[in-house]
Amino acid sequence: MAPYSDPRKIPGAVVHAKARAVLNEKQCQRLYWSNWKVKVVPGVVVSVTEGAHGTRQQSSVTADWEIASVIKRATLKIGIVKIGPVPDMTVATITNPEDSPPGPQISPQPSSSPSPEIPAPEPLSPNGGNIK
Questions:
Q1: d(Cα 82, Cα 17) in Å, to the nearest integer?
Q2: pTM of the shown model
C-alpha cells in the first residue's frame, strides 16, 4: 500500500482558507464588511516547508491567495489550509414542493374543557383612575 500523501503539499494544488488567516483583521473588515469572519479565499500552493519544532512535526504552506482580484503570497500552517476550491455557500432551494420529503403529520387535539373567558378591562375615568 502506498503511503498517504497530502494534496495540500503538492505545488500547484488548488486550496482555500479563511481570509482572516491570510490578511489582518482590519484589512478583512475593510474588504468584506460583516462577512470578514467567514469569507473564504482561493489559493494555489507555491511551496511547502516541513520542520520539527521541539518534538512536534510542523508543516507550513506558502500559497498565492487571490483577494479582491489581487494576488498575495502568504505562508500559513497546514491545518488552516483546506483542500480544493472555495465551496459554494449558496443555500439549496426546493423549486417543486412535491419533490420535498413529507414532514410529520400533526393533527389538532380537541380540547376537553372550554377555554376560560377573559374579562374585558374596565374603562378609565378622565382623571386616570377606574370608574366605580
A1: 6
A2: 0.64
